[in-house]
Amino acid sequence: MATVNLDTAARLDIVCRKGDTFTLVLDFGAEMEQAAANWKMQVAPSDTATAILSLEGATNFTIEANDDGVNYAKVTITASSTVMGGIDSGLYVYDIQTDSNTAGTTGGTVKTLLYGTFKVNEDITYGTV
Predict the structure, then answer these.
(1) Distance (Å, rounded) from C-alpha 38 to C-alpha 56?
(2) Number of Cα atoms under 13 Å in the Cβ half of residue 15
(3) Which of 74, 88, 92, 102 is an S-S bond match for 118, by CB 3.0 to 4.6 Å?
(4) How many whole angstroms separate alpha carbon 107 and alpha carbon 98?
(5) Per-residue pLDDT for 80 more than 80?
(6) pLDDT tops 80 at residue 108
(7) pLDDT at residue 28 in the model
(8) Which CATH fold topology does 10-121 show?
(9) d(Cα 108, Cα 103) in Å, to the nearest integer?
(10) Which residues contact 25 (CB under 8 A, 6 or more apart)?
(11) Which of 94, 75, 87, 80 lies closest to 120, judged by CA?
């Protein structure tokens, strides 16, 4: 019996701090061929729960060439300190996808690239400055 594994997503666990600006820079080393508008990251208490954090498109993603000159290889994900301050400390799950579908359409390519745990540590000084 043969097996084909189409799940090529890689696991990357993330630890961040409540109330701190979230900035994650990923260099995929190869052209990702997706504009910033096509990227999504969701964080949820479990894989079947509603997302508590949803980052999408050019508001939260920037795509640029990496230091080796490969276009669209370096992805930066950001969320403001205000957004991160609204998330309770705890352990969550997340994934990051590219999705070439536009609003109201289907048939594009959706690809999960990364997944894992998303731990938010409490911040003692958050909101006191």
Answers:
(1) 8
(2) 3
(3) 92
(4) 13
(5) yes
(6) no
(7) 92
(8) Immunoglobulin-like (2.60.40)
(9) 11
(10) 74, 75, 76, 77
(11) 87
Q: Check whether 13 has a pLDDT greater than 80.
A: yes
Token pair, residue 19, equals 């109330």
pTM of whole model > 0.85?
yes
Q: Where are the domains of the chain?
A: 10-121
Tell me the C-alpha to C-alpha distance, in Å, between residue 19 and each of 16, 38, 40, 123: 9, 26, 21, 7
Q: What is the DSSP string of 41-108?
A: EEEESSTTSPPSEEEEHHHHEEEE--TT--TT-EEEEEE-HHHHHTSPSEEEEEEEEEE-PPTT---S
Residue type, 119: K
Q: Picking from 19-23, 31-35, 83-87, which range would have the lowest pLDDT averaged per residue?
A: 31-35
CA angle 113, 62, 8 (to 5 degrees): 5
